[in-house]
Amino acid sequence: MSRRTVRELVDGESVEEIYVIADKQLRANRNGNTYLLANLRDKTGAISGLMWNVNEPAMAHIDSGDFVKVQAKVQMFQGTLQMILTKIEGVPADGLDPEEFAPQAACDVQRLTVRLTELVADLDDENVRSLLQRFLADETFMQGFTQAPAGTKAHHAYLGGLLEHAVNMMEVADRIAPLYPNVDFNLVKAGVLLHDSGKIRELGYEDSFLYTDAGQLLGHLVIGVEMLNEKLAEWNAENETPFPEETALRIKHLILSHHGTHEFGSPKVPMTPEAVVLHHIDNLDAKVNEFLRDIDDDPNVKSRWTAYNQRLGRKLFKGSTDEANE
């Protein structure tokens, strides 16, 4: 018997099914009573699960990243489906297919890997090209880079998402380069490949998407610079001429400034033309992906609008759909 996936859930149905608990929080309502807020997911999407009148000891048997079996009623609340849980219990991973629970990329990972290799090979700065090819030749790096999501919730939050994000950004950089002849797009493309590379160590993504200890303590910007330093050390050990110091400094700045502002987690704001280009390409691809997925994943298919997205601070207009016109 096939699973009842998140995407198949409809308002009013009762469900008994296994999901991954991607996030677990105990909160207090207005009366001070504690309730469970769980983010439940499988490969098709995520849904919030709420269980009223629980306490810490009662929920100690489950944790983020666990497989859980739930009994619940699905209901629509403010335009979004949620589950009201009556029972939740951990289940062993034995016999479960991890691919049923991890969101998958809609893209062809192998094709994107080939395209990334081609785009790096086309760089005309020999030093930058050779440095990036060291990353591409690193099997451990590429195993993570082609599997990792680009985030846990916001954009490209699925297996292969980090690779898709990087190739999309590289393609954008390739197309706009002729418009800005005074910008060094060899550096921009180095920033594209490396700006989120630290996420392969920041995130855990085998069963569910979680932050590792290193991810929580350091973050992917710092980790990314550490990974770059590792490759620069290899370069300098194997070459008579050390890697150009200013070029290395500029690439590190790209990694550390790509979030754009201090309030969004950048220890440095963009201070080179290449850094400001990278920041805006990154933001463009991330936001477009988030908008499209929010529209595509909206459970209320007959509505012309999505539910209010707290993260984006707005609803999104879907317009006419076949379902809405029936």
Describe the structure in your own words:
The chain is an alpha+beta fold. The protein has 2 domains: 6-99, OB fold (Dihydrolipoamide Acetyltransferase, E2P), CATH 2.40.50.140; 102-291. 41% of the residues lie in helices and 18% in strands. It contains 12 helices and 7 strands. A 5-stranded mixed barrel has the order 1-2-3-5-4. The longest helix has 25 residues, at 273-297. It starts with 13 loop residues before the first strand and ends with a helix.
Whole-number average pLDDT? Answer: 88
What is the beta-strand fraction? 15-25%
The tally of domains stands at 2
- How many runs of DSSP E, i.e. beta strands? 7
The biggest sheet amounts to: 5 strands, mixed, barrel
Terminal-residue CA separation:
31 Å
Write the SSE topology.
Blueprint: E1 14-28, E2 34-42, E3 45-51, H1 56-59, E4 67-77, E5 80-91, H2 109-121, H3 126-136, H4 139-147, H5 161-176, H6 185-194, H7 199-202, E6 203-204, E7 210-211, H8 213-217, H9 220-238, H10 245-257, H11 273-297, H12 322-325
Parallel strand pairs: 3-5
Antiparallel strand pairs: 1-2, 1-4, 2-3, 4-5, 6-7
Main features:
elongated, two-stranded antiparallel sheet, single chain, 326 residues, 2 domains, 7 strands, alpha+beta, five-stranded mixed beta barrel, OB fold (Dihydrolipoamide Acetyltransferase, E2P)
